[in-house]
Amino acid sequence: SLGAPLRDEQAEYPNTAGEYACGQEMASDTWLNRREVQAAIHVTLHWKPEFSFHAKLSYNFTAFSLLDAYVEKLLPNYRILQFSGDADPCVPHVGTKRWIDSLNLPVAQPWRPWVAEGSSLVAGYTEVYSG
């Protein structure tokens, strides 16, 4: 079964970059390190013994908001894909959508259902911005 991983112990997650109180990266690590999951999604680890989302970053907050930096430095130079699941316990898709809306980007393709090629089943939703 590719169901949610079970944890025997209760781990503490400090509220620092790379580790969040809701612990989604630990659940993802545990799930993605299951052999049957790796086989099902056709993943083979070549350069490290296990998959990990942990970055172990350490930094000091220097700004309340980075919106201006995104608008001035990233958006003119990079195409960005923002993905949010519908059940993210830390930043639900509604919060992500509000953040993207706050960038005030022109909408190139309005919000619409997304379907995989050759399918009629809705796999998610998409909206494309220009700018």
Summary?
With about 130 residues, this protein is α+β, with helices and mostly antiparallel strands. It is built from 4 helices and 2 strands, in the order ααααββ. The chain has a two-stranded antiparallel sheet with strand order 1-2.
What does this structure look like?
This protein has 131 residues and is α+β, with helices and mostly antiparallel strands. It is built from 4 helices and 2 strands. Strands 1-2 form a two-stranded antiparallel ribbon. It is globular, with a radius of gyration of 18 Å. Mean pLDDT is 76; it is low at 1-20.
Which H/E pattern describes the elements?
A: HHHHEE
* Low-pLDDT windows of residues: 1-20
Q: Which strand-content bin applies to the residues?
A: 5-15%
What is the count of DSSP helices, taking H or I runs of 4+ residues? 4
- The helicity comes to 10-25%
Major beta sheet, strand line-up: 1-2
Class by alpha and beta content: alpha+beta
What is the multimeric organization of the chains shown?
single chain
What value does the average pLDDT take?
76
First-last Cα distance: 43 Å
User: How many extended strands?
Assistant: 2
Q: Tags for this entry?
A:
131 residues, alpha+beta, two-stranded antiparallel ribbon, 4 helices, disordered N terminus
Show the helix and strand layout:
Layout: H1 24-32, H2 35-40, H3 67-74, H4 93-101, E1 107-115, E2 122-129
